[in-house]
């Protein structure tokens, strides 16, 4: 299917777009043993989407450590609650894996935050920001990229909620899962457009 995409997407258009939400299975991981089973499953998959969440700080000079690591397949997302478990051996194994591509956005920053929890050697990660310019797109945010390539809105409404809450709300879980899953969708569409050339680029003036 041929698409019209924009070098820079008009942010004012996003609010009117239909909202996209991950509608697959979400599994919250609260222990090292659960993490082992989750990682075994994830590393059997062909591609993964990744993202993190951190409790926002509204006090100058105070910064929290990363609270959540979300890792998605096409139909399942695992939410690793790192504020409870820390970087378990299984999570380190996932992060150091060199066989399954893990797609993120601005992932260098996430890796830095994860490294603060425990040292590890990053495995096979692909940052979408390193690839979007190959088709002439200059935007680097998930929301703008998704609107541009799919004509749908990824809501950022839950971004500044408390990611260290005792129990995550359903809206928080869907938000976190959507961000990770959307990275897979964007990467696969970018690869399709690059290989087929089925797009027309409108360059912003």
Protein architecture, described:
The protein has 205 residues and is of the alpha/beta class. Helix content is 33%, strand content 19%. The protein has 6 helices and 8 strands; from the N terminus they run E-E-H-E-E-E-H-H-E-H-E-H-H-E. Helix 4 (107-115) links the parallel strand 6 and strand 7 (125-127). The longest helix is centred in the last third of the chain and has 27 residues, at 170-196. The two termini are 26 Å apart. The model has no long low-confidence stretch (mean pLDDT 94).
Give the low-confidence spans: none
State the strand order across the main sheet. 2-5-4-3-6-7
Structural class by secondary-structure content: alpha/beta
**Main sheet overview:** 6 strands, mixed
In brief:
Helices cover 33% and strands 19% of the residues. With 205 residues, it is α/β, with parallel strands linked by helices.
What attributes does this structure have?
alpha/beta, single chain, two-stranded parallel sheet, six-stranded mixed beta sheet, 205 residues, 8 strands
Could you give the topology of this structure?
Layout: E1 3-6, E2 25-29, H1 32-42, E3 48-54, E4 66-72, E5 76-81, H2 82-85, H3 89-96, E6 102-104, H4 107-115, E7 125-127, H5 142-150, H6 170-196, E8 199-202
Parallel strand pairs: 1-8, 2-5, 3-6, 6-7
Antiparallel strand pairs: 3-4, 4-5
């Amino acid at each position: 299917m041929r698409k019209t995409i924009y070098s820079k997407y008009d942010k004012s258009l996003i609010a009117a777009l239909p909202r996209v939400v991950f509608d697959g299975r979400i599994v919250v991981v609260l222990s090292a043993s659960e993490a082992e089973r989750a990682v075994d499953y994830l590393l059997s998959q062909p591609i993964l989407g990744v993202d993190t969440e951190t409790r926002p700080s509204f006090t100058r000079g105070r910064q929290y450590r990363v609270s959540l690591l979300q890792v998605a397949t096409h139909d399942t997302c695992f939410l690793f609650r790192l504020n409870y478990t820390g970087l378990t051996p299984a999570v380190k194994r996932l992060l150091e894996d060199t066989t399954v591509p893990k797609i993120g956005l601005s992932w260098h920053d996430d890796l830095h935050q994860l490294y603060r929890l425990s040292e590890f050697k990053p495995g096979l990660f692909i940052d979408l920001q390193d690839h979007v310019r190959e088709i002439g797109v200059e935007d680097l945010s998930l929301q703008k990229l998704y609107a541009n390539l799919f004509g749908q809105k990824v809501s950022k409404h839950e971004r500044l909620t408390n990611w260290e809450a005792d129990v995550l709300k359903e809206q928080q879980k869907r938000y976190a899962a959507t961000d990770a899953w959307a990275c897979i969708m964007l990467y696969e569409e970018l690869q399709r457009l690059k290989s087929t050339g089925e797009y027309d680029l409108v360059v912003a003036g």
